[in-house]
């Protein structure tokens, strides 16, 4: 072994000891000392209207703010446009002591049609493979877009597919959570109840978004409490005002600036010993991504973490 190889091996060994890498896979290890972990979505930087922000800058921002991870749902060629391979991005996350928290998987409006089923399953399996590469396990299932017709009938058609996706994920030691979202067929409280009733708790969890539940007319605390035993993953989003379809952007606020009672949410999670990821999902901001992330993180550090650390 030459000196260069010795130094490289020593560095990897140090990261393994520190909990940074899994020695058998090279994937960033999870941090077992924490019951809950905090992440933010790449969407805040990716979709910022005023300028294109490199993903490397977003990663630095998250690391500097003390986050544990990033929710990363890669678009085609998203890493290559910034000159990164998957391996290089994974190494950057390790360097910045960040993990991938999860991945959003949106279902198309015709996903439950027989001729679209195989394509949906293939795409889902690719998502699982990508998550496994980063050492993550949570998939957030976005329902199909809202259309004219019987919403209950469409939810009924979607449920068997969601059960199938959940079983595929479970067999790979991963999991899915259904994600209520405005402008989809799982928006209102009764639609949330219906999809949860029609899906198997062994395979399908809930990955709630506090802001979307609120804007969809739901009582956030009541719904979180009702499904507390099926929670897998969270989108923390603050919002205020009345939702005027289809644009919910004007309703969004940084954490602590809107109408959501996050303190009560945290108390429910603590009482039920929730263990997993809490992801700040800020789709858009009236300031800048860094300023927005800083405001939300200050609220997390000052108000939410003391409730459930």
Structural class: alpha/beta
Give the number of domains.
Answer: 2
Q: Look at the structure and give the CATH class of the largest domain.
A: Alpha Beta
Strand content: 5-15%
Q: List the quaternary state of the chains.
A: single chain
Percent of residues in helices = 40-55%
Backbone CA Rg: 19 Å
Please list the strands of the largest sheet in the order they lie side by side: 3-2-1-11-8
> What CATH architecture label of the largest domain applies?
Alpha-Beta Barrel
String of helices and strands: HEHHEHEEHEHEHEHHEEEHEH
Number of discrete helical segments: 11
Distance between the termini: 45 Å
Mean pLDDT: 91
The main β sheet shows up as: 5 strands, parallel
**CATH homologous superfamily descriptor of the largest domain:** Divalent-metal-dependent TIM barrel enzymes
User: What is the number of beta strands?
Assistant: 11
Query: Tell me, what's the shape?
Result: globular
Poorly predicted regions:
2-20
Annotated CATH topology of the largest domain:
TIM Barrel
Defining key terms:
single chain; 309 residues; alpha/beta; TIM Barrel; 2 domains; four-stranded parallel β-sheet; 11 helices; 42% helix; globular; disordered N terminus
Structure in words:
With 309 residues, this protein is an alpha/beta fold. It folds into two domains: 1-29; 31-304, Divalent-metal-dependent TIM barrel enzymes (TIM Barrel, Alpha-Beta Barrel), CATH 3.20.20. 42% of the residues lie in helices and 13% in strands. It contains eleven helices and eleven strands. The chain has helices spanning 3-17, 43-46, 55-64, 86-95, 114-133, 151-171, 189-198, 210-215, 220-226, 262-271, 289-304; strands at 36-41, 69-71, 99-100, 102-106, 138-142, 175-178, 204-206, 234-236, 238-239, 252-253, 276-280. The strands form three sheets. A five-stranded parallel beta sheet has the order 3-2-1-11-8. Residues 2-20 have low confidence and may be disordered.
């Amino acid at each position: 072994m030459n000196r260069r190889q010795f130094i490289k091996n020593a560095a990897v060994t140090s990261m393994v000891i520190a909990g940074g890498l899994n020695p058998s896979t090279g994937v960033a290890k999870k941090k077992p000392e924490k019951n809950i972990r905090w992440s933010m979505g790449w969407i805040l930087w990716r979709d910022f209207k005023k300028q294109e922000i490199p993903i490397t800058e977003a990663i630095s921002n998250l690391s500097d703010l003390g986050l544990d991870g990033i929710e990363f749902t890669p678009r085609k060629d998203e890493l290559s446009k910034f000159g990164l391979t998957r391996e290089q991005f994974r190494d950057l996350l390790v360097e910045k002591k960040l993990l991938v928290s999860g991945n959003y998987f949106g279902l198309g409006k015709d996903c439950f049609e027989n001729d679209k089923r195989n394509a949906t399953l293939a795409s889902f399996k690719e998502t699982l493979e990508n998550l496994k590469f980063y050492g993550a396990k949570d998939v957030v299932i976005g329902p199909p877009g809202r259309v004219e017709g019987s919403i209950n009938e469409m939810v009924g058609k979607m449920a068997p597919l969601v059960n199938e996706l959940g079983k595929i994920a479970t067999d790979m030691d991963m999991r899915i959570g259904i994600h209520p979202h405005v402008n989809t067929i799982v928006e209102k409280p009764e639609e949330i109840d219906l999809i949860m009733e029609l899906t198997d708790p062994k395979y399908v969890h809930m990955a709630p978004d506090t802001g979307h539940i609120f804007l969809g007319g739901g009582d956030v605390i009541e719904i979180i409490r009702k499904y507390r035993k099926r929670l897998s993953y969270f989108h923390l989003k603050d919002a205020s005002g009345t939702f005027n379809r289809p644009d919910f952007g004007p309703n969004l606020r940084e954490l602590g600036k809107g109408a959501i009672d996050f303190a009560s949410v945290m108390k429910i999670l603590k009482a039920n010993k929730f263990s997993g990821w809490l992801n700040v999902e800020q789709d858009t901001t009236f300031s800048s991504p860094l300023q927005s992330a800083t405001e939300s993180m200050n609220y997390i550090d000052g108000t939410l973490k003391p409730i459930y650390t």
